[in-house]
Amino acid sequence: MSRPDAGPPPEPATTTNGPGRTDRPAAPTDEAGTTAQSGTPERGRLDAERTVLRLARPYLRRLLGAGLLATATELAALALMATATWLLMSAAGRPPLDRLTVAIVAVRALAIGRGVLRYTERLTGHDAVLRIVTDLRARVFATLAARRSTAGQRSGDALSRLVSDVDTVQDLLLRVLVPGAAAATVSVLAVVGAALVSPAAAVPLAVGLLLTGVALPLLAAVLTRRGAAEVAPLRGALASDAVDLTHGAADLAAFGATGAALRAATERADRLARLERRLAATGFAVDALGVLIAGVTSAAVVVAALRADVSGVMVGVLAVGTLAAAEVTSALIGAARQWTGLRAGLTRVTALLTAPTDAPSTGDRPVTAAAGHHVRLDGVVVRYREGAPPALDGVDLDLPAGRRVAVVGPSGAGKSTLAAVLTGAVPPDRGRVTLDGVELSAYRSEELPRAIGGLLAEAHVFHATVRENLLLGRGGADDAALDAAARAAGLLDWVRDQPERWDTVVGEDGGQLSGGQRQRLALARALLAAPGLLVLDEPTEGLDPTAADDVLASTLAAVPADHSVLLISHRLSGLDGFDEVVVLDAGQVAQRGRHDELVAAPGWYCDQWLIQVAAEQGYLALAP
Ligand SMILES: Nc1ncnc2c1ncn2[C@@H]1O[C@H](COP(=O)(O)OP(=O)(O)OP(=O)(O)O)[C@@H](O)[C@H]1O
């Protein structure tokens, strides 16, 4: 792809969308994103953290290093405050300078050391976490790719798992676990340090640090969780509003519904803003409580130290040290908030990695280069949802090399599902799909499109040139091959009329093409791929009857004799040359035979044929 804004088409030679887009494998999630699989929300959350730590195990030493550096940074900050206080208060008594030299040097060393430590901690932490995240992203990608059926159905969802959900792991490690562990260690050391000066002063300090480091973070987590439960659905609804208002702007305007849709979206946005303001206010209140507790703790420490006859200078050190330690633990309030906010993404990404995969094709058997393949379906049953009627119900089909079969039937009969089963995009719930006698799942999934592929429902056209879109079918095809495929699909004349010919950019989702041209482009791409079994799901959709007949005839003529074809069609003309026509109804084979036999027999095919002939004769009579 030469143009920077052109999205690079993916590798496989065929598109795998359409009914392959099932939502079967996804576990139901609640608002917080907790999977039903995980049991209770609490267990699900801890499961997620455990999974993250398991994934981080190879990088544990680096993470530990980052944790130690973070602890050292916080300790340096605390020691700096304490030493500086000691220095100032001691200097007030005008002692000989040599008594202060060590403290002066220590203050300088701690000030510089704190900065250096912070920098090294950030470097080490990010290095460890970015390695973990890279690893994780590759795993999530591999899992999503293995589940072709899910990936197709929820592309936005898949993208969000790959990008933002994986980022939650980064945030959990960098912004929650590492600083949390450092704050906890520093708190314990601060209490131990205070106890060495005055055990009595260490008691209020421990209580204050427990309040700021445990109680307040818990309170912040509960409040954030409650808020998130209200905010998350509203944000989701607003995102949908934004998509509907932009993508559906023309339709809303056409039906005079723009005002109502805008009002509904504005009302939701206002509610969200009110909720977020309330959340921010409670957040500030918790933070303010933290500051108040730090002040009260410091005062209590001073009183306890004075009662224990601690020297004035050390009382000052304890007071300022308490404030510094409380500031460190108060950081846990933010970490707790962040942790709560990350929960949904964490649970989603770990559920994805731990749930059993329904990968339809996971084998390592290579697909042979031979052109002719024998594909069979035996008693195939597909059910998209538990309790719903099956989309395919015991379908048998025999497709030896060179055989041409057409599948017809009313809308919703299961035709596209059949195509998806053949290409391996949807695995059957029962029955077998075999390629040369071996189950499809035994083959390398990336090689399957060589044997079975084609034009599936709603084929995607990339924002790229005509050539680039076609080369997705067969990388490295020369202009002669492009010519032949485009001619068979009826696209060649249009390409030749364009000033930039093969280098014409077709726009996002083929937006600069007509519906018919888009379909022809997708068909030419499927022809160029030339799989052993060419599956064509409504290849002439969007074309007028005459053009549809011409394109179908030239397409079939372009398919080598030893390649088989499975054509899915609403139109019945042009099927007389097929070896078999299968009529599907409610997922079952209602009729099968050659076109002539089916036209002569009472049933859906005969009725439909008569209706279409009458309709098209009328169209042809009216056509100029
Ligand atoms: N991804 C999916 N999730 C859930 N149900 C689905 C999915 N795809 C198809 N179905 C259901 O399966 C049944 C068969 O659908 P399919 O798309 O295979 O029919 P079709 O014969 O190709 O229809 P059409 O001619 O209208 O394209 C329908 O009842 C449909 O609602």
Describe the structure.
Strands 6-7-8-3-9-10 form a 6-stranded mixed beta sheet. With 624 residues, the protein is of the alpha/beta class. Strand 7 (533-537), helix 16 and strand 8 (564-568) form a beta-alpha-beta unit. The two termini are 43 Å apart. The protein has 2 domains: 39-354, ABC transporter type 1, transmembrane domain (ABC transporter transmembrane region fold, Up-down Bundle); 375-622, P-loop containing nucleotide triphosphate hydrolases (Rossmann fold, 3-Layer(aba) Sandwich), CATH 3.40.50.300. Helix 1 (41-56) packs across helix 9 (312-354) and helix 13 crosses helix 15 (515-529). The model is unreliable at 1-44 and 148-154 (pLDDT under 50). It has 18 helices and 10 strands. The structure holds adenosine-5'-triphosphate. It is found in: Cell membrane. Its main location: membrane. Pfam families: ABC_tran (PF00005).
Alpha-beta content class = alpha/beta
Query: Kindly, what is the distance between the CA atoms of the first and last residues, rounded to a whole number of angstroms?
Result: 43 Å
The whole-angstrom Rg is 34 Å
* Helix content bin: 55-70%
Number-wise, the strands total 10
CATH topology title of the largest domain: ABC transporter transmembrane region fold
CATH superfamily of the largest domain: ABC transporter type 1, transmembrane domain
Number of helical elements = 18
The biggest beta sheet reads: 6 strands, mixed
Secondary-structure arrangement, i.e. CATH architecture of the largest domain: Up-down Bundle
How are helices and strands ordered from N to C?
Answer: HHHHHHHHHEEEHEEHEHHHHEHEEEHH
Q: Low-confidence parts lasting 5 or more residues at pLDDT below 50? A: 1-44, 148-154
Q: What is the CATH level 1 assignment of the largest domain?
A: Mainly Alpha
Number of domains: 2
Across the major sheet, the strand order is 6-7-8-3-9-10
Q: What fraction of residues sit in β-strands?
A: 5-15%
